[in-house]
Amino acid sequence: MQPFTQWEAIGAPIDERNLDTNQLCPTRFNKVPLSDPDYQRILFNNQRFDDAGNELPDFILNTPPYRSAGVLVADENFGCGSSRETAVYALLAFGIRSVIAPSFGDIFNGNALKNGLVPVRLTREICDSLRSQLHAQPGATVMVDLRRLLVIAPDGAEHVFDIHPKARRCLLDGLDEIGLTLQSQPAIETFEASYKPSLRWIYPQP
After folding, report:
1. Which of 105, 138, 170, 203 is surrounded by the fewest CB atoms within 10 Å?
2. Burial readout 108-121 (b: 16 or more C-beta within 10 A, e: otherwise)
3. How far is it, in rounded angstroms, from Cα 178 to Cα 148?
4. Could you write out the DSSP letters of every residue in the chain?
5. Alpha-carbon gap, residue 10 to 65, rounded angstroms
6. Residues 6+ positions from 5 with CB-CB distance below 8 Å
7. How far apart are CA 96 and CA 89, in angstroms?
């Protein structure tokens, strides 16, 4: 997993409330392999493309400069709906490393943290202000500083956020669940060396 320390990128305002995972990754794309070079086209596919696969010019992520966005500023209950992890994969494939919103779907929030996408909770009033700034200044950047737990708005205002300490450590160090477990490999190997000889019918000895 790619470490996340500080990320400054063009912010895209997404004004829709209760934006669900089926919009982020429509069901028909759930089995597309991550190695697909066009994986980023999955994100908001129904809103971004017509039936022939042509871009719809009115959707915000199809318009310059938002097509280069690396941060989304959304409204309440972002990522609600089904548990599909592909919703997070689609965001990352597009280049989104952080989503800022007043609230998130619980499962989406967990999937994001496990895959290196930072969900930042700020109040509705702050999120409304951030989106207003991004609408007024297309191409403005937003900084998410995970070390200092700060979001820096286009107008320079600093907004403090919170995140679970374990999740923060894993994001900073680029550790997914497997990587975190492997940090305990010496202790695991020591345990196995003492445990396996007592179960010779399961673990035959050479």
Report:
1. 203
2. bbbbbbbbbbbbbb
3. 26
4. ----SEEEEEEEE---SS-BHHHHS-GGGTT--TT-TTGGGGTTHHHHB-TTS-B-TTSGGGSTTGGG--EEE--TTBTBSS--THHHHHHHHHT--EEEES-B-HHHHHHHHHHT-EEEE--HHHHHHHHHHHHHSTT-EEEEETTTTEEE-TTS-EEE----HHHHHHHHHT--HHHHHHTTHHHHHHHHHHHGGG-TTTS---
5. 8
6. 145, 146, 147, 172
7. 10
Residue whose C-alpha is closest to residue 133's, from 63, 70, 60, 73: 73
Please write the tens of the pLDDT for every residue from 95-145: 999 999 999 999 999 999 999 999 999 999 999 999 999 999 999 999 999
pTM for this model (two decimals): 0.89
The encoded tokens of residue 138 equal 């297309």
